[in-house]
Amino acid sequence: MQRSVGAGVTDYWNARAPKFDGAASHVAQRELWQAVLEAAFQADGPKDVVDLGTGTGACALLAASLGHRVRACDGSANMLEVARAVARQAGLAIAFQDSTIEAAEIADASADIVTLRNVLWTLERPIEALLQAHRILRPGGLVLVSDGLWSVAPQYRSTYPEELAARLPLHDGLTEAAAQDLLTRAGFTGFRRWQHLFPASPYPGNVPVFVLTARSLAG
Ligand SMILES: C[S@@+](CC[C@H](N)C(=O)[O-])C[C@H]1O[C@@H](n2cnc3c(N)ncnc32)[C@H](O)[C@@H]1O
Description:
Number of strands: 7
Strand content: 15-25%
Oligomer: single chain
Order of helices and strands: HHHEHEHEEHEHHEE
Shape: globular
Radius of gyration: 16 Å
Strand order of the largest sheet: 3-2-1-4-5-7-6
Bound molecules: S-adenosylmethionine
CATH superfamily: Vaccinia Virus protein VP39
């Protein structure tokens, strides 16, 4: 029997978890990422933030250090184990949930900000994650999506087995325009871009990257 795409993706990240932060942009360039998120959140005080596909907690940890109340989920228990350890060490209270984005138990209209960083490329049905973000957000809430055109630097990118990669529509990565199109279909509007705050691509291989925010339309 063929294994599900989700199971293949989870296996991959479970195996990769112990070494992920060693090469990660959010660790090497922590201050830059924090400044970009702080600007992009446009928050006038502590907000309810949800990080979907948090991995080792990149956006969750930064959001919590900015003073926000943070929940986060991921399908990989091993990635979450790293995230929990880093949060503990940093004294940051983050509610981590061991769950896929699609099955996450997060109440409707319970968040002001939802983040998805480097997650859309690895999903079989990316639109479902954005619909989930829309459901979780209060009307007028902010979604932040960041991703890149990973095929530009294949030597640095995560490499899935070929048969798994073939089932992911955005496996090559995505552009800001593609993300904007998906977000529009999921009910978001009022786009703002933030990648200009990076002096250069924050990823090796000069991968074109975008950081895009949009607002949830009511209903
Ligand atoms: C490239 S990592 C990005 C992690 C983190 N967002 C970051 O910016 O460092 C992709 C993460 O998405 C998670 N993931 C993939 N598909 C998922 C799904 N359907 N539900 C929850 N997590 C998922 C993987 O387990 C992995 O931790």
